[in-house]
């Protein structure tokens, strides 16, 4: 259950729903498996899996949710091969070529035929809401997966004002400065991995793994103008992570010292074990995020959420309409 990839979003409005209220709102969108003609299904499942029934798990003020996505897998090569066979049969029988539009129709027929027999694969997407610090943390390696969860959460509760977390300083400039100095920010040490890019030449990338990041050869690349876009760091008690220029955290690895905090607490069942690990993990992540944002100059709160932008545009449109009506009266 320990998160490995963090996509962090800032709540621009106070999150006031209780665990019970949120659970009730998610229930209509509880996950159901793909039907015979469905290619994908998305819905909410209990974070505790078979050990729980609630769609929201609460601990220490944090609210965890879990989404499940099921997709049917139909290899493109198999579809294309079948389409070619059908197109060839038509060409030989009717002595004519098969056009692109007709090929697309054949492809649709093949997909329709294969869907009921296709294998379905599923994945779980965990996230938790932190109403105290106004964050939503999604355990996702890609922004697309994280935003899919947020979009479904927004639809379930009608409104969710969030923006990707942003720092006051530009991440690649800060990371480049640290490594050029070289001096890691407070409470951090350099790890053994980084990615350098040339801002003047697209596609010019150097990836370093298992390297001394303070070595002269890396320093020379920085002096030559390359910038750090991904940087391996070690935080406090040996927690390892990779942070990128979007402030996404990847390959998060909690140290034995952290996991032992959970292991040293007795649990009578799987649900209690989950609760203990969740509590330890969220406290560690909260402290980590605060130190990381401080290293980048603090949290930037100037960015407006999608909901705020839409609301602002609606207000401006209403103001224009009122002004127009007043002018007509005058």
UniProtKB/TrEMBL annotation:
The keyword Membrane does not apply. One of its GO terms (cellular component) is cytoplasm. It is found in: Cytoplasm, Nucleoid. It comes from the Bacteria. InterPro entries: RdgC. Keywords: Cytoplasm, DNA recombination. Its main location: cytoplasm. GO terms for biological process: DNA recombination; regulation of DNA recombination. One of its GO terms (molecular function) is double-stranded DNA binding. PANTHER family: RECOMBINATION-ASSOCIATED PROTEIN RDGC (PTHR38103). May be involved in recombination. Belongs to the RdgC family. This is Recombination-associated protein RdgC. It comes from Microbulbifer agarilyticus.
């Amino acid at each position: 259950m320990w998160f490995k990839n963090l996509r962090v979003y800032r709540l621009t409005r106070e999150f006031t729903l209780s665990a019970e209220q949120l659970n009730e709102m998610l229930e209509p969108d509880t996950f159901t498996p793909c039907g015979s003609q469905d290619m994908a299904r998305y819905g909410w499942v209990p974070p505790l899996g078979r050990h729980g029934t609630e769609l929201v798990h609460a601990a220490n003020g944090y609210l965890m949710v879990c989404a499940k996505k099921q997709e049917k897998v139909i290899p493109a090569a198999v579809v294309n091969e079948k389409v070619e066979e059908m197109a060839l049969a038509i060409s030989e029988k009717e002595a004519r070529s098969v056009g692109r539009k007709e090929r697309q129709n054949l492809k649709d027929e093949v997909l329709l035929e294969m869907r009921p027999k296709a294998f379905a694969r599923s994945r779980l997407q965990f996230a938790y809401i932190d109403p105290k610090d106004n964050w939503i943390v999604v355990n996702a390696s890609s922004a697309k997966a994280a935003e899919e969860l947020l979009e479904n959460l927004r639809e379930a509760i009608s409104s969710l004002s969030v923006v990707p977390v942003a720092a006051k300083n530009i991440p690649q400039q800060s990371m480049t400065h640290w490594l050029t100095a070289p001096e890691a920010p407070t409470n951090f040490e350099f790890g053994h991995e980084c990615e350098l890019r040339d801002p003047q030449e697209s596609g010019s990338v150097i990836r370093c793994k298992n390297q001394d990041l303070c070595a002269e050869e890396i320093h020379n690349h920085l002096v030559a103008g390359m910038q750090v876009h991904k940087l391996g760091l070690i935080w406090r008690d040996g927690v390892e992570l990779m942070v990128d220029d979007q402030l996404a955290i990847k390959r998060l690895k909690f140290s034995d010292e952290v996991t032992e905090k959970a292991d040293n607490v007795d649990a009578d069942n799987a649900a209690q074990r989950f609760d203990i690990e969740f509590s330890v993990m969220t406290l560690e992540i909260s402290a980590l995020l605060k130190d990381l944002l401080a290293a980048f100059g603090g949290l930037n709160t100037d960015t407006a959420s999608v909901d705020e932008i839409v609301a602002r545009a609606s207000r401006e449109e209403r103001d224009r309409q009122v002004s127009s009506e007043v002018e007509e009266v005058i």
